[in-house]
């Protein structure tokens, strides 16, 4: 049995009076490629923030690599939605990858040569080294995605966490990107939040359906009927209205 | 007291020169103050500009006015440090109000900015009127916070200004990489094991400080322009954030110097508007002259492309002539080209002249033209790209043969050698185009090929 990297026990969280998570228990193993799916407002991003230690649970507890999440955050490579940053920012691919080293460089100190080396290696891993000097404005959707993956890898993470990583790219790019993730998954566990179960299920080995409460199953076993029973609505309805 | 009062004495330097030479303590004070204001606002403005929060600077500057008045009322005099603290405090209250409005009401950020700007400014104007009606010592000069009057700047103002600018610039230099990440991707920054929230507060404080120190010289109404305009201008010149900060700082400093100069030259002239005019002029220059991104450079680029397109079109037409009628010893007259190309006779002549200059066509007696060997190879390359693209549209996208020509007409000028290779790999039919014309083979693959494809050489 592989080792547990994330152990969440009976997690609850509320924003003011609104309960977002109720009694969520989840274990993520070393070799997992886990997709967290669920309707908008179902608590997916909240769960990720709890794992990153950006929020504290109202009750229950999370352990990441056997410690409190805010202490282990530096071991997690986070890939946010790329649609959220300014496409015309004056920065090169190389410099973005280097930002992944910021958590390993003291505040107020410049990046060192080994940071640059690490960033370059990360770009090579995602097949982006040839575009290192490019301005990000000139990248395609798929290249931008890989750049963000490189930035996460540059911090030498023990787990990758991503939030709707392919929300704004076409399906061919999405496919390539998931293939890259599957390669990376040979070395580290990956958790991703997605709205599109149909596509994701071909690559992940487990699926967690989250709508305040959580049901985890292996990827092959998720049935549309299960989801329908859980959400009380046809699956299509939420899978298309779901966005973060 | 005002700067413009300098009247040239007999034998002394004229006032426009005096500004640069003798000056006088007050002139130096004011100029240095304006330069520092422009410098720090320019540098900090880059972060606000890149985060698309330019309007925030405007709201903050206006929000400072009640703070200035309250500080004056509390201190009972015009103490620069207390007024600065008052201005910064009011800016912060304004910034927090904007956040609260966005988070707890249905208002979007732009509405919140508008509300805070007008409410705070209204309150400030009210207090200002109250102070002026009350009269009393030292109140003179307070109304200059509206449009700025650098001439009113005193020694102690400058001391505060220098201290603040130095702190601002040093902190930016220290935390450059943190601020860069924050401006670029806040979400990712927060996921790191670093106190990035504190960094956000620090960056916001620096922006507030840069606004607050400029209020007296530039005025609350125009301070935002000093924050945004140099940054917007600097963006045209570089793709590197560090260089952008530097250029924006220099532009800001130049604008400050220019504002002080005009203020010195004509009595009572407000400094703020002239600083903004200077900054806008620099922006205009950048917009037109910047390499790569400037209007002029784009225009030149566009013109070059059009010229090249015209040249390639004529080469391809000559290739067609040769293909249809065999090699012509007598060449072709400009009018022959016009039957196939929508070009005026003058443009045809000019283009042929350029081609002759490049050795791709030669002029025969009687003003007729034909391809040289190099020209024939070049023309074959263009024709190959044109027909390969037609073949691709027809074979892979199943577009009818009579609909593929116009698209290929554009693509023949922009297809890269890499794409051309990909097309050759992808297509099964690479011998003939959909109109059953022969696709010229790549250079060196058949005995008949002559010389090098000029275009490939150029790349």
Describe it:
- The complex is a heterodimer of chains A (244) and B (459).
- Chain A has 244 residues and is of the alpha/beta class.
- Chain A has a domain at 4-85 and 158-241: Rossmann fold (3-Layer(aba) Sandwich), CATH 3.40.50.300.
- Chain A is 32% helix and 25% strand.
- Chain A has nine helices and nine strands.
- In chain A, the strands form two sheets. In chain A, strands 5-6-7-3-8-9 form a six-stranded mixed β-sheet, with helices on both faces.
- In chain A, α6 (171-184) links the parallel β6 and β7.
- In chain A, α3 (93-99) packs parallel to α5 (141-154).
- By secondary structure, chain B is mainly alpha-helical.
- In chain B, 69% of the residues lie in helices and 2% in strands.
- Chain B contains 20 helices and two strands.
- Chain B has helices at 15-18, 25-50, 54-75, 80-104, 109-134, 144-147, 155-174, 176-184, 186-190, 196-218, 223-235, 241-265, 271-289, 295-325, 334-338, 345-357, 373-396, 405-411, 417-426, 454-458, and strands at 361-364, 368-371.
- In chain B, β1 and β2 form a beta hairpin.
- The interface between A and B is medium-sized, with 28 and 27 residues.
Name a few traits of the molecule.
heterodimer, A: 244 residues, alpha/beta, Rossmann fold, six-stranded mixed β-sheet, three-stranded antiparallel β-sheet, 9 strands, disordered C terminus, B: 459 residues, mainly alpha, ABC transporter involved in vitamin B12 uptake, BtuC, Arc Repressor Mutant, subunit A, Diphtheria Toxin Repressor, domain 2, two-stranded antiparallel ribbon, disordered N terminus
């Amino acid at each position: 049995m592989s080792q547990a990297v994330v152990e969440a026990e009976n997690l609850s969280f509320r924003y003011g009076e609104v309960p977002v998570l109720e009694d969520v228990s989840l274990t993520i193993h070393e070799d997992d490629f886990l997709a967290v799916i669920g309707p908008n407002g179902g608590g997916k991003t909240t769960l990720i923030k709890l794992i990153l230690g950006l929020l504290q649970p109202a009750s229950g507890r999370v352990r990441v690599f056997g410690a409190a999440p805010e202490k282990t955050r530096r071991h997690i490579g986070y890939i946010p939605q790329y649609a959220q940053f300014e496409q015309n920012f004056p920065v090169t691919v190389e410099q973005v990858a280097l930002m992944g080293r910021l958590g390993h460089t003291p505040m107020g100190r410049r990046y060192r040569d080994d940071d640059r080396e690490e960033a370059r290696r990360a770009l090579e891993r995602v097949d982006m080294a040839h575009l290192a000097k490019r301005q990000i404005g000139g990248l395609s959707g798929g290249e931008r995605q890989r750049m963000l993956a490189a930035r996460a890898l540059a911090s030498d993470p023990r787990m990758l966490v991503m939030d709707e990583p392919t929300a704004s790219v076409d399906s061919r790019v999405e496919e390539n990107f998931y293939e890259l993730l599957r390669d990376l998954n040979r070395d580290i566990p990956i958790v991703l939040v997605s709205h599109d179960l149909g596509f994701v299920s071909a690559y992940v080995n487990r699926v967690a359906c989250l709508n305040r409460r959580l049901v985890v199953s292996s990827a092959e076993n998720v049935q549309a009927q299960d989801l329908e029973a859980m959400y009380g609505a046809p699956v299509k309805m939420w899978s298309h209205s779901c966005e973060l | 007291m005002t700067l413009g009062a300098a009247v040239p004495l007999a034998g002394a330097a004229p006032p426009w020169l005096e500004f640069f030479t003798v000056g006088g303590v007050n002139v130096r004070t004011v100029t240095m103050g304006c330069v520092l204001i422009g410098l720090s606002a320019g540098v900090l403005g880059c972060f606000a500009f890149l985060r698309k929060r330019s309007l925030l600077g405007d709201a903050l500057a206006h929000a400072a006015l009640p703070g200035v008045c309250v500080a004056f009322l509390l201190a009972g005099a015009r103490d620069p440090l207390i007024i600065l603290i008052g201005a910064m405090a009011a800016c912060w209250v304004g910034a927090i109000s904007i956040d609260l409005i966005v988070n707890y009401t249905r208002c979007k950020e732009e509405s919140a900015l508008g509300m805070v700007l007008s409410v705070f400014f209204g309150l400030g104007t009210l207090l200002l009127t109250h102070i002026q009606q009350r009269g009393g010592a030292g109140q003179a000069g307070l109304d200059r916070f509206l449009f700025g009057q650098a001439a009113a700047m005193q020694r102690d103002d400058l001391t505060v200004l220098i201290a603040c600018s130095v702190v601002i610039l040093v902190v930016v230099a220290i935390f450059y990489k943190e601020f860069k990440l924050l401006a670029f991707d806040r979400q990712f920054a927060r996921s790191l094991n670093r106190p990035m929230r504190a960094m956000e507060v620090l960056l916001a404080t620096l922006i507030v400080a840069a606004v607050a120190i400029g209020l007296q010289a530039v005025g609350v109404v125009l301070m935002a322009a000093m924050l945004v305009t140099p940054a917007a201008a600097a963006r045209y010149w570089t793709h590197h954030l560090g260089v952008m900060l530097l250029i924006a700082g220099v532009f800001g400093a130049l604008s400050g110097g220019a504002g002080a100069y005009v203020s010195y030259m004509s009595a009572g002239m407000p400094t703020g508007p002239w600083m903004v005019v200077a900054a806008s002029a620099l922006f205009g220059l950048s917009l037109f002259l910047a390499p790569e991104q400037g209007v002029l450079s784009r225009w030149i680029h566009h013109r070059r492309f059009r010229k090249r397109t015209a040249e390639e079109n004529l080469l391809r037409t000559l290739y067609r002539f040769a293909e249809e009628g065999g090699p012509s010893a007598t060449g072709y007259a400009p009018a022959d080209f016009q039957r196939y190309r929508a070009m005026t006779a003058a443009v045809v002549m000019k283009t042929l002249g350029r081609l002759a200059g490049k050795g791709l066509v030669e002029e025969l007696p009687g003003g007729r033209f034909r391809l040289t060997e190099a020209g024939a190879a070049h023309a074959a390359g263009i024709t190959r790209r044109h027909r390969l693209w037609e073949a691709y549209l027809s074979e892979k996208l199943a577009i009818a043969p009579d609909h593929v020509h116009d698209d290929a007409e554009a693509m023949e000028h922009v297809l890269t050698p890499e794409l051309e290779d990909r097309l050759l790999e992808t297509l099964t039919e690479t011998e003939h185009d959909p109109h059953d014309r022969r696709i010229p083979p790549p250079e060196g693959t058949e005995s008949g090929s002559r010389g090098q494809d000029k275009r490939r050489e150029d790349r």
